[in-house]
Design goal:
three-stranded antiparallel sheet, about 10% strand, five-stranded mixed sheet, alpha/beta, about 350 residues, 10 helices
């Protein structure tokens, strides 16, 4: 978080990172305190449009500094069965849960989608197919499901209808709108698939996509810079590509924890606590960096020298889920007292 959104006016930042800090002249100024890593410059238009808000010193209550434990806790939304996004989808109207209501771009269902009524894993729309002989097979399945009236038959008919829509998408090349320029990396390719599904009206309610590899114990710039570039280019292109569709779409960027404030001897940083969250989309009162900034003086740092978490990630997600139809946040985030952040006003 400190490498993506730098606290330019906090002297503790430059004292702790004399060799790897983002310089004041390099940064893309957000306000009179924070600045973007210059590699995130492609996100400045969304920020200036008021469609992008940043929450600093965000994270979870987990203090193990273990990737595995911290990510599990965050994706489950606490110590609870299933994932927070799965519980959100399960609390919605079941009639709206089609085969493409929840999609994970990758190779496995992420923990956040565990427990969803349906969750489809794919790397491209070509994966959502019945194979080369699909026309005859679909006719046979349609006849079979058409003879039944139970829930399984209804789900089968919905799936066949979604396959028909996806088949139509595959028949024509996709050209991003509004001059959007995606990269050729896996992250951008995944965002293209999400954009296509949103525009195709296949009933998509939630999508999950990972961009891994940020563990920068050494040579932080060498490790993070390519990832920052992919993140910025992908999100910027997605924002442009959606056009008016962004008004009913929300993108959340989150991570399980941040890095140690002080750089180490290998020009890197070790596991820490607080980080940042990005929220982009319709209705966002953006153009702001939110969250209580605790400062980076030594007396306020946590444990071995970490940025404290002043905003729990659930309080960022809660108003977003409310906007997208949830009135059962106590089921989505059980055993947690919510204090929703005012990201919409």
């Amino acid at each position: 978080g400190l490498n993506l959104v730098a606290p330019l006016q906090d002297d503790g930042y430059y004292r702790a990172r004399p060799r790897i800090a983002i310089g004041k002249k390099q940064a893309v100024a957000l306000d009179d305190f924070y600045g973007l890593n210059p590699l995130l410059g492609a996100l400045e238009p969304a920020y200036k449009d008021g469609a992008l808000a940043i929450v600093h010193a965000a994270g979870s209550e987990d203090d193990t500094r273990s990737h595995f434990e911290a990510q599990d806790l965050m994706e489950h939304g606490g110590v609870a069965a299933g994932g927070w996004l799965g519980r959100f989808l399960r609390a919605q109207n079941q009639a709206s849960s089609g085969p493409l209501s929840a999609v994970a771009l990758g190779r496995a269902v992420p923990e956040c989608l565990r427990g969803a009524p349906t969750a489809t894993v794919l790397q491209s729309l070509d994966d959502f197919s019945l194979g080369d002989n699909r026309a005859q097979l679909k006719r046979s399945l349609a006849k079979l499901y058409g003879m039944q009236t139970d829930l399984l038959a209804s789900a089968g008919r919905d799936t066949l209808a979604a396959m028909e829509r996806v088949d139509q998408l595959r028949q024509s090349a996709y050209y991003p709108a509004n001059g959007a320029d995606y990269g050729t990396d896996e992250f951008s390719r995944g965002l293209i698939q999400v954009a296509r599904l949103i525009k195709a009206r296949v009933g998509l309610q939630a999508a999950s996509l990972d961009l891994g590899g940020w563990d920068s114990h050494f040579s932080q710039s060498l490790i993070m810079d390519p990832l920052i570039t992919r993140l910025a280019r992908g999100l910027s292109a997605f924002y442009k590509d959606l056009g008016s569709e962004v008004q009913h779409t929300t993108v959340v960027v989150m991570t399980e924890f941040g890095r140690r404030v002080e750089e180490n001897s290998a020009f890197g940083t070790d596991h820490g606590r607080g980080s940042v969250m990005f929220v982009m989309g319709g209705g966002i009162h953006g153009g702001r960096t939110l969250g209580k900034w605790p400062g980076l003086s030594r007396e306020v740092l946590e444990g071995p020298g970490d940025l404290p978490v002043t905003t729990n990630y659930r309080n960022v997600l809660a108003p977003i889920l409310t906007r997208h139809g949830s009135d059962k946040l106590d089921q989505v985030f059980p055993n947690f007292t919510l204090e929703p952040m005012a990201i919409y006003g």
